[in-house]
């Protein structure tokens, strides 16, 4: 039976490392190292061909079973990938429908935003125009009436204040008579 060590030695490796021997053969000629009775010997491959020991081919029964198992695994993987593809396709379709619905909603919202911006501009322009309009006669009349009421209110407050002061003087000059004074006249 051939071991890995024998194979390494036949190919030119001794103890799993490259052999860099300093033998008398030229460095360009391939060398072959063999292990015999604990000693290494170098063979020149130019002179003779060394028989290579290969593994015998596997029996047809084993090869058939390996091929059958490989085919089964491949079919299983193919079926799994096929199922995954179907699932991904269904998910892709549902996401595509959802995306189109979101896009439609976004378009509608953009139209609403544009309409609201247009209305907002129109209202601002109307407000600006209203503030710049000439003052109407009704507005002037209302302002005049309002100012008259403010002036009248101030006048009434002044009158009430004067009356309070006068009442206070009168009360100090003509104070109230006590009960004793009222019952016993002098």
UniProtKB/TrEMBL annotation:
GO BP, sorted A to Z: chemical synaptic transmission; cilium assembly; mitochondrion organization
InterPro entries linked to this entry: CEP89 (IPR033545)
Annotated spans, Disordered: 1-67
Biased composition regions of type Basic and acidic residues, renumbered to the chain: 46-56
Entry coiled-coil feature ranges: 92-133
Gene Ontology annotations for the cellular component aspect, listed alphabetically: centriole; ciliary transition fiber; synapse
Biased composition annotated in UniProt, kind: Low complexity: 16-30
Transmembrane among keywords: no
Assigned keywords, A-Z: Coiled coil
Name the UniProt record assigns to this protein: Centrosomal protein of 89 kDa isoform X5
């Amino acid at each position: 039976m051939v071991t890995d060590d024998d194979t390494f030695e036949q190919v030119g490796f001794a103890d799993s490392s490259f052999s860099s021997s300093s033998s008398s053969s030229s460095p360009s000629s391939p060398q072959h190292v063999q292990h015999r009775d604990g000693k290494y010997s170098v063979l020149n491959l130019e002179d003779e061909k060394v028989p290579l020991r290969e593994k015998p081919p596997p029996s047809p029964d084993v090869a058939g079973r390996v091929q059958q198992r490989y085919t089964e695994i491949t079919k299983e993987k193919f079926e799994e990938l096929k199922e995954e593809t179907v699932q991904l396709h269904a998910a892709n379709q549902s996401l595509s429908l959802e995306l189109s619905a979101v896009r439609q909603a976004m378009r509608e919202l953009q139209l609403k935003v544009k309409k609201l911006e247009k209305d907002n501009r129109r209202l601002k322009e109307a407000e600006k125009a209203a503030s710049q309009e000439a003052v109407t006669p009704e507005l002037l009349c209302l302002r005049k009436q309002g100012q008259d009421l403010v002036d009248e209110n101030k006048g009434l407050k002044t009158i009430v204040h004067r009356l309070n002061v006068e009442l206070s003087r009168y009360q100090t000059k003509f104070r109230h008579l006590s009960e004793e004074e009222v019952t016993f006249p002098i």
